[in-house]
Amino acid sequence: MTRDELLTTYPDIHVVTHPFVKHKLTSLRDKNTSTREFRMLVEELGTLIGYEATRDIETVDIEIETPLEKAMCPVLKGKKLCIVTIMRAGNGLAEGVLKLSPSARVGHVGLYRDPETKQPVEYYLKMPHSVNERTIIVVDPMLATGNSAIMAIDKMKEMGAKDIRFICLFAAPEGIEAFKEIHPDVAMYIGAIDQGLDENAYIRPGVGDAGDRIYGTR
Ligand code: URA
């Protein structure tokens, strides 16, 4: 499916087109952006896109006392959010989402790509309790084939999660299509939909290896 077909087929795919987001994504793409700046930008984008991804979470009115009078005012309802990072590149993005909700719980999913099957294999999974009662926000900067995100969300569903959202910075149309075929109920919040994947499953034009650029490795 093309970008436009995906967006018309799935109304819960949200591309965050705010000018600040666009500007920061361009800085990420630039190969001359330093590790320090790249890491900061990923975190800032986590906050900006996280803001959109949490626009509809529920609030409840409680009574408080201002210096002048009593008032009924809204606070977040229910159990704390849970941000789930797909390691390792997701960690940078998770830090940004945490700025919105510093008391959120954080789950970690570790996946590596089997060199023969090319499929993700789980090597680590640690989640808070009551996954079924929380809004779960899964984060990974790059949605390439979609395999890792699909598997991470499979795990969340096996653990009983019902309200799951996914955030990424760059997505390939192929990855979005694969993701939505398996998880049509999971809303996606995306910085930019790029042209597609190359023969090494890198997103083009993309940013290269996001984990390496966040951590200064190669
Ligand atoms: N992961 C990355 O870090 N970059 C890509 O382009 C694809 C997957």
Question: If you had to describe this structure to a student in words, what would you say it looks like?
Answer:
It is a single chain. The protein has 218 residues and is an alpha/beta fold. The chain has a single domain (3-209), classed as Rossmann fold (3-Layer(aba) Sandwich), CATH 3.40.50.2020. 35% of the residues lie in helices and 30% in strands. The protein has seven helices and twelve strands. It has helices at residues 3-9, 19-29, 35-53, 90-100, 147-158, 173-182, 210-215; strands spanning 13-15, 59-65, 70-76, 82-87, 105-113, 120-126, 135-139, 142-143, 163-171, 187-193, 196-197, 203-204. The strands form three sheets. Strands 1, 4, 5, 6, 7, 8, 9 and 10 form an eight-stranded mixed β-sheet that branches. A two-stranded antiparallel ribbon has the order 2-3. A hairpin with a 6-residue loop joins β5 and β6 (120-126). α2 (19-29) runs antiparallel to α3 (35-53) and α3 crosses α4. The longest helix is centred in the N-terminal third of the chain and has 19 residues, at 35-53. It is globular, with a radius of gyration of 18 Å. The model has no long low-confidence stretch (mean pLDDT 96). The structure holds uracil (URA). Residues 89, 142, 144, 202-203, 206, 209-211 line the site of uracil (URA). Uracil (URA) binds next to α7. Belongs to the UPRTase family.
